[in-house]
Amino acid sequence: xxxxxxxxxxxxxxxxPRGGDLRLRIQTGKLPLDGVALGDSICTNGVCLTVVxxxxxxxxxDVSNETLEFTTLGDLQEGSPVNLEKSLTxxxxxxxxxxxxxxxxxxxVVSLQEDARSIRFVLRAPxxxxxxxxxxxxxxxxxTSLTVNAVSGAEFDLxxxxxxxxxxxxxxxxxxxxxxxxxxxxxxxxxRLLQGKGxxxxxxxxxxxxVQNGYLDRDGADHGTEPRR
Length: 229
Known about the structure:
Elements: E1 8-18, E2 21-27, E3 41-44, E4 47-53, E5 58-63, H1 65-70, E6 81-86, E7 105-115, E8 118-124, E9 138-141, E10 144-152, E11 155-160, H2 162-167, E12 178-183, H3 185-194, H4 207-212
Antiparallel strand pairs: 1-2, 1-6, 2-5, 3-4, 3-6, 4-5, 7-8, 7-12, 8-11, 9-10, 9-12, 10-11
């Protein structure tokens, strides 16, 4: 688990095709590797990767075809900057929000403009993720924990302060840039719980499901969070 508070910006040192997928070497820059052992996890542009070798100035990690298909790691080239965060320990401050490093989808930067000393970014999420993104909710963008300022359909606004611009890869983004998105884990579990007895069925959450499980009357009246027994 991670917090989404980026600890350093590293860079891609090498990409080696291995049996149909990829082995990735990351130079970690100012990220201290003391205490990191083989098998530990490091969040790399929002993706939880397992350390398979420690050459001294960074780490190697294997990237599966699943990860290459559903994240932006396949877009990386030698020299590409990447956001880095070591996994949580019992004494770590939870400065951001709970981030699993399991990317939900790839979004795209729509626009960016100056807003006083900050930069206002508009991003577009895949349509299937839009329902999990809420005004003043949390989202992880390339491993960075951020607050959603506004939502319109599948597009959402982020206000990036100078500190975040300086210490993450946000200073590399431009219109059209692809980014890894992880929605708030609470939203995902809440949707599953609201499906009630229908959770084992293929159908998605619907008004009928909410009515059948006692959350709403047919007229749409809300009965709170406890389903009828």
